[in-house]
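chain and backbone:
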Amino acid sequence: MRNRVTFGVRIPVEGWAPITVPPPDFDYLSQLATRAELLGYDCLHASDHLINWIGSTPTHTAPTRYLSLGTYESWTTISALASMTERIKLSNIVLCNLFRNPALLAKMASTLDLISGGRFVLAVGAGWFREECHQYGLDWFPYSERIDRLQESILVMKALWTEKTASFEGKYYRLREAVLEPKPITKPHPPIWLGGSSDEIIRMVAKEADGWDVGVSLSPEALKAKLELLGESCREISRNPEAIRIARPSMVVLSRREGDPMDLVKAKAKDLNISTESFLERYLVGTPSQIASRMREFIEAGVQHFTLYFERDLQDLDTFASEVIPRIR
């Protein structure tokens, strides 16, 4: 099963680009989740932001009219969806380590793993969207410190999940004979996936993670180079890199006709603050056959899981399941 390609559906808590599409409501999110499970998708993912990220990048903050678009809180959303589903896994893309104390996050994860019957995958990253921290009065730190905090957070959570009483003394976090009961169903703990493509994250993945979300910016060729570094980092600590699943998120723009989706692509690229060419490089655009062909390039580079961001029309979810997935599996 480890080499089987799996497919996740992104729960659009932030809505869609272009922003002219009606915003999401929970009735729609629940329909999407239950339909995804019925169609055989493997996981639901919700992005973790306090304000809307559409149009923002790590170096550019979108205009206020974008930031003020509605956004559902991700943990509350996937917890609610846990009660409406039975098989499909539940995760994030990805939790911001700056939002929650890691001891509290460990408790939240244990509880969600229990109530979902062992379906939770903890995906977490160092955080990149400075504006939401500033707006909400949360501390923001230089990148090196965010990385160090993330490393400590993972150690704190693993200790709480696996030890009867956990003590930890770090630079940023500490525990004093802390008890976490009940423990998660998943043993030794829920899978940990890390997000980000920096060398520091890759080395952390090798040491601590069960999966790696590589983000949208890496081409198949660039991904191969990053996976070489991951392999080297694993060998240094005598770990098999094949134990780590590689995930890639992507928007999907399906068309039955050649060239048909270009108007939508241009509108999306404008709202995302990227060029049309960059959109076409990063995301999956075209007929089912064209999209399957592009996905095979990433599979050959090492991707084993795709997190897919569909249009609001649930027909695309159905079409992908019936006409794209069979071309890959």
In short: The two ends are 12 Å apart (CA to CA). The longest strand covers residues 245-254.
